[in-house]
Specification:
Number of strands of chain A: 0
Distance between the termini of chain A: 70 Å
Helix content of chain A: over 70%
Oligomer: homodimer
Structural class of chain A: mainly alpha
């Protein structure tokens, strides 16, 4: 009797479509990415697309939400959380951001930062989901920054949340420099200025 | 004899088209901006568009070049150049960037930073013109940073050019936060962290 064929796990169409959207939007932006191109990349029909998403705008919202989920898992599992000193955890986060600048530009730059540039006025729902992603990601840094501030810079006037958001501004700007120059080196240098700022701010 | 009618100065079609491109691309990105929409906003015919530009890509290149020209004039005429201390000139530049965050988001955010996100892989000619714009703008800061470094931080290892580019990364990232949150306040806070970094770096 023949053994049953091993069937490789097949990803659900929804996930294939979201991953295709990640690739295309990170390569060329939201405006230039058509539903047809997403279907072609995902290898699914247009009917399947519209079974999963009401519109391209809806896909944009869900792509931002899926981005939040995927990146949350990546950062939750990163090694810097194991450090005892809150400042070392925060600096470990910044160094981790530098370490993951690998592969092609479209593989390490930010889906939601890219989309915001185009959708902020024309697709407010997509923009909200993108800001929610950045805002929650920054929010995850606030506790470590607060603890580090209590120890190293208790009298300083800046707020931990503003510093968390500033790290995101630097990272987003660093991605733009990397894309513009086709050189991740400029992104690395900018993140190193951020590291330097954090050390100076905490007198370390 | 009747006096000749006063004819108001009419802008050349090329300039009307470039200004329409500025407005539309800063509002919704390069991908979502069609030649038809640019012509409609400029109030000129499609024939006139193609008399001035070979293609949408060519318009993108010329928009980035025109952006360089317009912004160069704005910054060349800004008051911070009059300060005697090179560090005060550099800090004056950063404060000036904060002061000009006025009006609508599309009026104070950056044309070339927005375009880079979308065009870096698909329209290399446009991307080159955008990087040239940012790179030359950053280049204008290098002399003041060099002079300030000689006086205040001669032994530090960072390069003046890397700090000039880092200022651009922060500004670009600050624009993304402003667009995402519809709140220029987040951009202001990020630029204030940059100011704080510069003061700490130069021990001022």
């Amino acid at each position: 009797m023949a053994r049953p064929k091993t069937v490789p796990d097949k990803k659900p169409s929804r996930e294939l479509l979201l991953e295709a959207a990640f690739d295309l939007i990170r390569s060329q932006g939201f405006g230039a990415t058509t539903v047809d191109a997403i279907c072609e990349r995902a290898g699914v029909s247009k009917g399947t697309f519209f079974h999963n998403f009401k519109s391209k705008e809806d896909l944009g919202v869900e792509a931002a939400n899926h981005w939040s989920k995927v990146t949350s898992e990546l950062f939750a599992g990163a090694p810097y959380h194991g450090k005892k000193d809150p400042l070392e955890r925060f600096l470990g986060y910044v160094r981790f951001r530098k370490e993951i600048l690998k592969g092609e530009l479209a593989e390490f730059t930010c889906l939601v930062g890219t989309m915001i540039q185009e959708v902020y006025a024309s697709h407010p729902g997509v923009n909200r989901a993108c800001f929610d992603s950045i805002s929650r990601h920054a929010g995850n840094l606030v506790k470590d920054i607060e603890e580090a501030k209590k120890v190293h810079a208790p009298k300083d006037k800046w707020s931990p949340r503003s510093l968390a958001l500033h790290t995101q501004a630097v990272l987003q700007g660093a991605f733009i420099l990397a894309k513009a120059s086709a050189d991740r080196g400029l992104a690395v240098e900018s993140i190193e200025h951020l590291e330097n700022y954090i050390r100076l701010l905490f007198k370390k």
